[in-house]
Amino acid sequence: ELQDIARLSDRFISVELVDESLFDWNVKLHQVDKDSVLWQDMKETNTEYILLNLTFPDNFPFSPPFMRVLSPRLENGYVLDGGAICMELLTPRGWSSAYTVEAVMRQFAASLVKGQGRICRKAGKSKKSFSRKEAEATFKSLVKTHEKYGWVTPPVSDG
């Protein structure tokens, strides 16, 4: 996976290992849809990338990585408290061992735009960093909710 990403010609993402661990990656998402408000936000705030953390379980690729946004602080775009990400494919039920990290990141980039993700600019709130503990709790809660009610994409008019 790591070697495949290094060979990407479009510089869509780049990866740095956390403490040289193959199970803990910081991934820089360099590109989102250039027609999106998020891309405009990135240009206006001189944000070169969206930084995510992926933690892989011992049995990867048979279980999904835990993925969360580290920075910048985003609002909407299916990014929730702590930087947790609301995407069915990141859950055990929605995961397939055929998914690559690149494919997951491309799906995430698309869902950020579809969900009208923006860089948070609210005074005070934009500087508050996301936490792993908060992200894990939020993700656990959203999985429980979706297992009960299903994974339905609401109409854009619903926000």
Automatic annotation (TrEMBL):
It comes from Struthio camelus australis. Residues 1-152 form the UBC core domain. SMART domains: UBCc. Keywords: ATP-binding, Nucleotide-binding, Transferase, Ubl conjugation pathway. Pfam families: UQ_con. It is an enzyme of class 2 (transferase). This is Ubiquitin-conjugating enzyme E2Q-like protein 1. One of its GO terms (molecular function) is ubiquitin conjugating enzyme activity. InterPro entries: UBC, UBQ-conjugating_enzyme/RWD. Signal peptide: none annotated. Interacts with FBXW7. Probable E2 ubiquitin-protein ligase that catalyzes the covalent attachment of ubiquitin to target proteins. May facilitate the monoubiquitination and degradation of MTOR and CCNE1 through interaction with FBXW7. Its EC number is 2.3.2.23.
